[in-house]
Design goal:
The complex is a heterodimer of chains A (322) and B (154).
Chain A: H1 2-14, E1 21-26, H2 34-49, E2 54-59, H3 67-75, E3 81-85, H4 86-92, H5 108-115, H6 118-124, E4 132-138, E5 143-147, E6 161-164, H7 168-177, E7 180-183, H8 189-195, E8 200-203, H9 205-210, E9 219-226, E10 230-235, H10 236-241, H11 244-278, E11 282-284, H12 289-305, H13 309-318
Chain B: H1 2-37, H2 44-65, H3 73-77, H4 81-112, H5 130-149
Helix pairs in contact in B: 1-2, 1-5, 2-5, 4-5
């Protein structure tokens, strides 16, 4: 009798889960980071719209592994949804590399016009042959250099050891700018700045502040060389198992997350800038951006010659003037 | 069978040792290049990480043949002699199953990642999963060797 009661209780506890599909979502940023908040927002939307049929469980802070591993896991169907940056994704899918080209976007408004329109859809379509469905793009801000001394021109970078993400493209860009590219995992950067293994690094405002890298490299130069966006991707095998209605709900929620994130991101950037100034960071605003742009032009050479990526770059540039 | 297994386990040990030597050389070069030449090589860390898979997995295959893996000897030693023998048999079967899974799923990953290249190295990503298959195959073979060479009392 007791056993039966137990069974009934267990049945009740699990009843809401019957028929409901839990989608697992991975993110490598900590809980309070805007991308994680965007995934949570997307999850709520999906749960509401599907009447609880679909729910999203978010695993932030690398709980499911490093980005390069979770991408593979998503491609092979072990993770359902993943928020990744387009730069490491470009290591696997060459067509996506154009998104991390330096100075591809004039400003944030230009980027939004491109990514939230037909060009963005064409870029997301490159993911499908690799077992991924691209749902939407998220802001990642503009990456700029920070170091122990001010950087105003490419000449100021000469011989400096600058940490880069381990992608061939960033390494090539640093070489063109005259810096000494040092690929290194994100977690090692703080210590390496303190011990002089590297002289500087580059990242967006929120990351510069949340990692406290400003303590070891108090000069932030606003050269804004890359705006490589984040992408929300879904495993193609999971996508195909959803009904047409469910697919529409998931895609709409991901698009809504893009807008939600843009507002939060701007707020976050303003907050980080204020915090930086309060912490004594020297913000270098008079950066010779034209000199940086000229120096990296050779990077574009191969991309413009490519029959698929070349026309895309021209289309993106045409959007720069509204 | 025995001499074949002996040769293969020697080969596994040789791969593991060579990979370890290469890691030491590459990391040594990386430190010298970073501080001495002020030109960090961009491939060294990726190469060292890749080689570590060869060191660990082929070293583990050699270890399986020489019974160097973790084991609860305390438990086995308290059993009667006949049961101790069963234990050995059970361990070999468990190793065999584990090694087969490692080999099968490793081969799946190898096939799926063949077309992608490793970040920082001009090599296919499949090289990461090759030691999983190689080591799994060797471990399975060594487990079979143990199963057929242990005389069964029944």
């Amino acid at each position: 009798m007791k056993f039966r009661a137990l069974l009934a209780a267990a049945g009740l506890a699990f009843a809401p889960m019957c028929g409901a599909l839990v989608l697992r979502a991975a993110d490598n940023q900590p809980e309070d980071y805007p991308t994680v908040q965007a995934l949570r927002f997307m999850g709520q939307r999906i749960a509401e719209q599907s009447g609880g049929e679909l729910t999203v469980k978010v695993y932030p802070a690398r709980q499911l592994g490093e980005e390069k591993d979770t991408v593979l896991a998503t491609m092979f169907g072990a993770i359902d949804i993943n928020r990744v940056n387009s730069a490491p994704l470009g290591n696997l899918i060459p067509e996506l590399r154009l998104l991390s080209l330096p100075y591809l976007f004039r400003d944030q408004a230009h980027m939004h016009r491109v990514l939230n329109g037909p060009i963005g859809d064409d870029i997301l379509a490159f993911l499908r042959p690799h077992g991924l469905v691209g749902l939407s793009f998220l802001d990642s801000g503009a990456r700029s250099f920070y170091s122990q001394r001010p950087i105003r021109t490419p000449a100021d970078l000469a011989g400096l050891k600058i940490r880069v993400q381990n992608t061939d493209q960033f390494i090539a860009m640093m070489k063109l700018l005259g810096a000494n590219a040092t690929p290194m995992s994100f977690g090692q950067v703080y210590e390496s700045l303190l011990t002089g293994v590297i002289d500087g690094a580059e990242n967006n405002w929120p990351s510069y502040m949340s990692t406290r890298h400003f303590e070891a490299a108090p000069y932030y130069s606003l050269d804004r060389h890359s705006m490589a966006p984040e992408v929300i991707v879904m495993s193609l095998s999971r996508w195909n198992s959803l009904t047409g209605d469910q697919q529409r709900i998931v895609r709409d929620a991901a698009r809504a997350a893009t807008n939600h994130m843009t507002e939060r991101w701007q707020h976050r950037v303003a907050q980080a800038m204020a915090d930086a100034r309060a912490a004594g960071v020297t913000v270098i605003e008079d950066v010779d951006i034209a000199a940086f742009q000229r120096a990296v032009q050779p990077l574009y050479h191969d991309y413009l010659a490519d029959p698929i990526v070349g026309p895309l770059i021209h289309r993106i540039r045409a959007e720069a003037q509204p | 069978m025995k001499s074949l297994c002996e040769r293969l386990s020697a080969l596994a040990l040789a791969i593991s040792t060579l990979a370890l030597i290469a890691i030491t050389a590459i990391v040594g070069w990386q430190v010298w290049a970073r501080y001495g030449l002020n030109a960090s090589p961009s491939w060294s860390e990726a190469a060292a990480l890749l080689l570590m898979l060869y060191t660990v997995l082929f070293g583990a295959a050699w270890g399986v043949r020489h019974d160097l893996h973790l084991g609860f000897h305390w438990f086995r030693q308290r059993l009667p002699a006949r049961w101790q023998h069963h234990c050995e048999w059970l361990v070999a079967v468990a190793v065999l199953l584990f090694a087969l899974l490692m080999m099968i799923y490793g081969a799946q990953m190898l096939q799926q990642t063949w077309r992608y290249s490793l970040a920082g190295l001009p090599l296919s990503m499949a090289w990461q999963y090759l030691p999983l298959v190689g080591s799994g195959a060797l471990m399975a073979l060594f487990a079979v060797e143990k199963l057929i060479s242990t005389p069964d009392e029944h």
